[in-house]
Amino acid sequence: MSSPAEFYNSLPPICKAYGTICLLATTAFHLGLYHPAHIALSYQLIFSRFQVWRLVTNFFFLGKFSINFGIRLLMIARYGVQLEQGPFGSRTADFLWMMIFGALSLLALAAIPMLWTPFLGVSLVFMLLYVWSREFPNAQINIYGLIALKAFYLPWAMLALDVIFGSSILPDLLGIIAGHLYYFLTVLHPLAGGKNILRTPAWVNKFVARWGLGYRGNVRVQPQPDRASGAAFRGRSYRLND
């Protein structure tokens, strides 16, 4: 792209919206417009004081401006965008439903006291990374110019880096669990002969159509051959929506 504006305008709608909101949330925090405690996930405040906005707002705070914040934002801009433009290229509603399902799964996991974390935005981004690694398992990834590995192993490599750098691994683990649950229900289980029980709801399709965000869901994708060398992890060649 010849300019940042052209790059931004070229982004697909869902990743563009989510990344923009996350950036604005951190910017507003540094400007002193709010305190993170006011948007953090707290089931006690949700049920006792009906502060239901916390169920949504906690997904938009990726932390203060830092290297970690930049890495999470780049994950959205790279892996999330590749997902939305690639496997979900003609299924914007399905991509939106994937993120909604991931958010609901993370909220359910965070209801377990030992798995609770005040902000689930990092976990949602890590879910995108995990699903991307299953969709492009044979893509070659180079980490900091030191380690080359297949994309299938990237989530675990990032998890190991967080351990080395002393960061909490709980958000990453939650993202992996939510991502695998989605991938299992929509790909692995149907390919094994089971029924796809996670079809995109009609209201998500209507929302996408109403706001002109992209394409409605449940569009069949033609099988794509895996031309990459090594077939240990092929990912899927098509998605079952029936």
Task: Walk me through the topology.
Blueprint lengths: L3 H7 L2 H18 L12 H7 L4 H4 L9 H19 L6 H19 L10 H15 L4 E4 L3 E4 L3 H12 L4 H22 L10 H10 L31
Antiparallel strand pairs: 1-2
Q: Work out the helix count.
A: 10
Bulk shape: globular
Q: Strand-and-helix sequence, N→C?
A: HHHHHHHEEHHH
Alpha carbon gap, first and last residue? 38 Å
Helix content: 40-55%
Give the class from helix and strand content and strand pairing: mainly alpha
Count every beta strand, where a strand is a DSSP E run of 2 or more residues: 2
Rg over CA atoms, rounded to whole Å, is 18 Å
Structure overview:
- This protein has 242 residues and is mainly alpha-helical.
- It has helices spanning 4-10, 13-30, 43-49, 54-57, 67-85, 92-110, 121-135, 154-165, 170-191, 202-211, and strands at 140-143, 147-150.
- A hairpin with a 3-residue loop joins β1 and β2.
- The protein starts with a helix and ends in a 31-residue tail after the last helix.
- 35% of the residues are buried.
- A two-stranded antiparallel ribbon has the order 1-2.
